[in-house]
Amino acid sequence: MKGILFDFDGTLADTMEGHYLAWRTALGEYGISIDACDYYPLEGAGMHYIARTFIRGRPWKESEIDELVQKKRKNHVEGQMIAFYPGVESLVSELKAMNIPMGIVTAGHLDQLCLSVPQSFLSHFNALITGDMVTRGKLDPEPFLKGAQSLGPIPQECITVENAPLGIQSARRANIYCIGVSSTVGPNKLADADEIVIRFADLRSSIVIKGILESRRSHA
Q1: CB neighbour list of residue 109: distance below 8 Å, 6 or more residues apart
Q2: What letters, b where the CB count within 10 A reaches 16 and e where it falls short, cover 115-145?
Q3: How distant, in Å, are the alpha carbons of 3, 16, 118, 199 from that of 143?
Q4: Half-sphere exposure of 48 toward its Cβ, with a 13 Å CA cutoff?
Q5: CB 12 within 8 A of CB 81
Q6: How much is the pLDDT for 69?
Q7: Residue 75: HSE in the Cβ half-sphere, 13 Å Cα cutoff
Q8: What is the SS3 assignment for 66?
Q9: How many C-alpha atoms does 43 have within 13 Å on its Cβ side?
Q10: Helix or strand holding residue 131 (H, E)
Q11: Residue 214: is its pLDDT beyond 90?
């Protein structure tokens, strides 16, 4: 394996509640109410896809959907607090020190990622693929195919780490080995993944991650 592609929200960072609250506030302005269980299964999908899902059955114009998405983005920027899951920063730093190519593949937009995440963390990654850089978001394979291309390896030489069912489907359609992290949904929702771990910190026990670390250490 020659490259690792990480999802961001819900995988590297504990941001899902912030996204949910931003959507709930934006939709509330239009009299639409949602619960966390309505949003979490959609995590990883593009914002316009999520917006269309929540307004299904309403005769909205495309400009109104755009307005809803912008309200959500504004709410999230104003209320966000980035907190990485335990073990994220240490593993990413170790992989970087071993010169293992890494990328972030997220449905979030590049400006939000750069505003909310310290540059010192983002600089560890060789590629950033965001929702505004692709034509078709997750669950289409395009985001992960673009991520693999940015790192250099062919998709079969990459690993994906994902917390969302749609993201796992996207990775599998790109023919990329996928490790599911049960940080926001139960393991039963991640059944399409090649491996499942409960927490990000458990990645070190993953068959392929453990193999990469041991291989690089033996050649150091």
Answers
A1: 47, 73, 130, 131, 132
A2: ebbeeebeeebbbbbbbebbeebbbbbbbbb
A3: 15, 20, 23, 24
A4: 14
A5: no
A6: 92
A7: 19
A8: helix
A9: 28
A10: none
A11: no
Gyration radius of the chain over CA positions: 17
Nearest C-alpha neighbor of 5 from the set 100, 98, 84: 100
20: Cβ contacts below 8 Å, ≥ 6 apart: 34, 36, 39, 40
Helix-, strand-, coil-residue percentages of the chain, each rounded to 5: 50, 15, 35
The span from the CA of 98 to the CA of 3, in Å, is: 12
- H-helix or E-strand spanning residue 165: helix 165-173
137-180 pLDDT, tens digit per residue, is 888 999 999 999 999 878 889 999 999 999 999 999 999 999 99
pLDDT digits (tens, 9 = 90+) for 88-118: 999 999 999 999 999 999 988 898 888 889 9
Measure the CA–CA gap between 156 and 176, rounded to whole angstroms. Answer: 5
Domains annotated on the chain, with CATH: 3-14+83-218 (3.40.50.1000), 16-79 (1.10.150)
User: Residue 19: its pLDDT value, please?
Assistant: 86
pLDDT higher than 80, residue 77:
no
- Look up the pTM and report it: 0.85
